[in-house]
Amino acid sequence: MMPRRLASAVVVASLTVAACGIPLDEEPQVIARGELPQSLQPGTSTTTTLADRLTEDVTIYLVDPGDGEVARLVSVTRQVPVVDSGAEVERAILEQLLAGPTSEEQLDNNLTTAIVPAGDAPISVLSLRRPAEDQLVVVLSETPAIEGSDRTVAFAQLVFTLTELNTVDQVRFAVRDENGVDEDISVSTDTDEGDVRRAVGRVDFPSFSVTRGPG
């Protein structure tokens, strides 16, 4: 006598096969192609769910020095990890910008950056704050660039890069002193105002032209 569990399994299997539309016979039978269910027809592909993307494209701005008289910003695509937090995206974008151009971008496209540290250690992002919905405060380990027109270019790179985000219209910059206190730093704008200690946006760099770069 067939055990009850085995008998139940046979019944379930028989019902499953029958549900597929394939007739049950005691002996193997050749089934015509036209009698097969659509899902079993030759050449029928199955749908595969692709894994979620692990990275996303972002835009940073590097510098094309041109003839040395007028600096031009060049938008370049980078890839950063997909994250849920807006602050993590902002930090990842800034880290890409602070890393500067790749060797390929330097050699093939003559791209450079004005965001350079005064010492040997690279500039890093210490913290990010949101005092207002469309404003971002960036606390850096030190002021970008040293002086002159390069300082204006450096801030333009930072502002144009961060305002690529739909959630950022203005940026305020600060540095952290030895006592751990964040102090606003003077931003060199491209207007008659010159250096300011306030949040700035793209309107503060009106003479900078932007072109699409590699990537």
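That was protein one. Protein two is written in the same sequence-then-structure order:
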Amino acid sequence: MNSLLHSSFDRRVLLRVGATGLFGLAGADLLAESRKPAKAKSVIMLYQWGGPGQHETFDPKPDAPAEVRGSFKTIETKVSGIRITEGIPQVAEIAEELCLVRCVQHTMKNHNSAGYYSLTGVAPSSDDQRLRDSLDLFPAPGSIVDKFIPSGKGVPSFVSYPYTISDGSITPGQHASFLGKSHNPFFFTQDPNSQDFRLPELALPSDVSSERMESRKEVLKIIDEQGGLLEQSALAKGIDDSFQKAVSMLTSPTFKKAFDLSKEPKKLRDRYGRTTYGQGCLLARRLVEAGAKWISVYFSSSIGGPTGGWDTHGFRDQPQDPILKNHLLPLTNQTLPTLISDLKEKGLLESTLVLWMGEFGRTPRINKLAGRDHWPQCYTVVMAGGGLKRGFVYGASDKIGAYPTLGQARPEDITATVFELMGLDPETEIRDKLDRPLPISRGRVISDIIA
């Protein structure tokens, strides 16, 4: 297990508070005074690990040769002129809420390097599948949000679940890196679809009073009493450098209630789908209501396979079409439109940016094993809400979906646009391990997609 993301918990580290944390809070207050108004108060990133193929999702090529267009037909959406694959008809019904960026491109063809680039908007020095997670690499955008626009008391700004993505080794870009552990995500691996889903470390003994929680000695005693329960808890993985965060979260009814999915109507839970991913998307909406700023929902821990992520090439015993038809497209068809509709019905979509993306696309031509290989030269990122144009397509690919012919967007442009929508200037600086100033994004804001 990766030591940066899954280090065992030194209980007494929880009780350390230093001047750095206090200065960070003051810095955030100073930054808030000059920050732009935010169109998006929260971001839900639905990360499609493995690399969704543009041809079988949001950029089909129905007039191309068979080895390019594939076996899936295309369908019209609610927006005239926008066609998508027949495998996601419910998504077609909410297309007027979507903003499709069909010209995203980069040069990283390996999962770990492309994953790191797409997550952070910072390209690694080389396209190496052996890229290892380290404190020299750039932090997750959720950690940057936590640093500059933290949530209110008792609610973590950055939450991620239910997997750590990897391909041989942990993919960088999922935690705070050199920003420090206090900006790590509140991370957990419990299955939101399980009947007993809850976070036990947030359920304090009934005899714990608020006065007792104010005493460091008493908190240490409580943690010691709970022993192994907290050893692998979300607290250990996300906020082990901040006593104040630990206390406020342990005593926060708002955050604790967000995890009680039983409070949701059965019909709504069924609409999301009784799957880990479906219930995880429902939880994301509840976390937005609780005040979280960035929620990362990872589609799968595996890059591919019959029940894994979107890496659909090279399976001799099962070509890509059955995997798409039976697993990947049904999950997308059920969850993405339900989440967007649910946010809209609750008046949250305008202030919540939904980001559906993977690390790259797939090759224009299907290989001999009836699959598509890695292709970062042109793919689609789907966005919705949060101040974006609705029913809009930015950019276009050529007749076989190989290269952009109109518009240009790179991973750093996606992060720059997201930060801009959240009221963060993409040129805002952070400092790395060597105290060098770095902008939080090196890209340009895609102003054409902002409403």
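The mean pLDDT is 86. Keep this in mind for the problem set.
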